[in-house]
Amino acid sequence: MMKGSLKSAMEEIASAIKANKDYLTDLDREIGDADHGINMARGFDAVMAKLNSAEPADLSSGLRQVALTLISTVGGASGPLYGTAFLRAGKTVRQGDMLNPKLALSMFRAAVDGVEERGKAEEGDKTMVDALEPAYRAFEDTLKSGGDFPECLEAARDAAKKGVEYTKTIPAKKGRASYLGERSIGHQDPGATSVWIILNALLQYAQKIHKEQ
Amino acid sequence: MVGLVIVSHSEKIAEGVRDLAKQIAGEAVRIEAAGGVADHKIGTDALRIEHAIRLADTGDGAVVLLDLGSAVLSTETALEFLDDARRGRVLIADAPLVEGTMTAAICASTGASLKEVVSAAKEACNANKL
Ligand SMILES: Nc1ncnc2c1ncn2[C@@H]1O[C@H](COP(=O)(O)OP(=O)(O)OP(=O)(O)O)[C@@H](O)[C@H]1O
Ligand SMILES: [Mg+2]
């Protein structure tokens, strides 16, 4: 069992998104409509406002609140995609469950499945899936070989980063960037980049709570 | 009577298309606008769409007409929040937003079925302007 709270994990994500708001928006300017950072910052600001106004009763209802807030405030494709991810992650948690690495693995799988079901993208389509799938596999492999929670997240973050690099080499098949076709090659996908930023933020969070134990 | 939901990234577009359709089809057809996100910003909001679907569907179903990109993802997310019975009578029209809404609204006003209304919307894909 791990200490910490959903609120402090979300705080870490929200401040990382805020710090990278312009960076994500600039990436989206190249192959999209220049709003990914603005959308994500608006969404996670609203998440923090929600969590600050009332601390959720438990992890599962907290994740549902996060999901509903993202779905209704982000505005772009990343809203329903990340929203569905948090919604499905929350559904794998039973009432009263505390976070542990094994539960995190099943939450992670459900989240990735949710994104894929919602957006119908596969690896190689130049979307957030290109960061999520390798990150999930790295998390799973590290957990299986006995890694602790921060080690799992570190492996996931590094794999996501490789996925981000990979998106530079391929044309977009889903989302706005797909209108550019081959011209999208050479540019990295904004959504894959925000996945990497979020995983890095979760790693920072995990390292903090690990130290406190 | 089948209702309509207009989903757009722009609140003004959704409301404008709704007003136009109401003028053509009359007040009997329920047409709900679900455009933009809070503070009149550009974007789509699944909860706003879900609410509009609940208003538009009075038992005979609802057809959703939409613009691009995340409009589809947000509408499909909204459907996830509906119970099975209602979800079963909501269809997304693969049709141009303005023309599709007009043909769908006229069709709905005749008391047509859900399937008929959604295919009326689709027929707008073939409408020539010149
Ligand atoms: N179908 C999809 N499946 C998975 N990821 C997707 C899909 N469509 C878009 N994305 C991701 O969303 C990111 C863009 O998010 P953003 O918040 O900028 O939405 P947007 O494309 O501007 O939305 P909108 O369609 O409303 O204009 C992309 O970089 C990509 O990673
Ligand atoms: Mg964008």
From TrEMBL, chain A:
SMART domains given in the database record: Dak2
Sequence ranges assigned to domain DhaL in this UniProt record: 4-204
Pfam families reported for this sequence: Dak2
EC number per UniProt: 2.7.1.121
Functional pathway: Polyol metabolism; glycerol degradation
GO terms under cellular component: cytosol
Keywords: Glycerol metabolism, Kinase, Transferase
MF-aspect GO terms: glycerone kinase activity; phosphoenolpyruvate-glycerone phosphotransferase activity
Superkingdom of origin organism: Bacteria
One GO-annotated biological process of the protein: glycerol catabolic process
Function in brief: ADP-binding subunit of the dihydroxyacetone kinase, which is responsible for the phosphoenolpyruvate (PEP)-dependent phosphorylation of dihydroxyacetone. DhaL-ADP is converted to DhaL-ATP via a phosphoryl group transfer from DhaM and transmits it to dihydroxyacetone binds to DhaK.
Protein name in UniProt: phosphoenolpyruvate--glycerone phosphotransferase
UniProt organism field: Caproicibacter fermentans
Taxonomic classification: Bacteria, Bacillati, Bacillota, Clostridia, Eubacteriales
Automatic annotation (TrEMBL), chain B:
Domain PTS EIIA type-4 per the UniProt entry, residue ranges: 1-130
GO CC, one annotated term: membrane
Keyword annotations of the record: Hydrolase, Kinase, Transferase
EC number(s) per entry: 2.7.1.121
Reaction it catalyzes: dihydroxyacetone + phosphoenolpyruvate = dihydroxyacetone phosphate + pyruvate
Main enzyme class: transferase
One Pfam family, short name: EIIA-man
UniProt entry tagged with the keyword Chaperone: no
Subunit comment: Homodimer. The dihydroxyacetone kinase complex is composed of a homodimer of DhaM, a homodimer of DhaK and the subunit DhaL.
Protein name as annotated: phosphoenolpyruvate--glycerone phosphotransferase
Gene label: dhaM
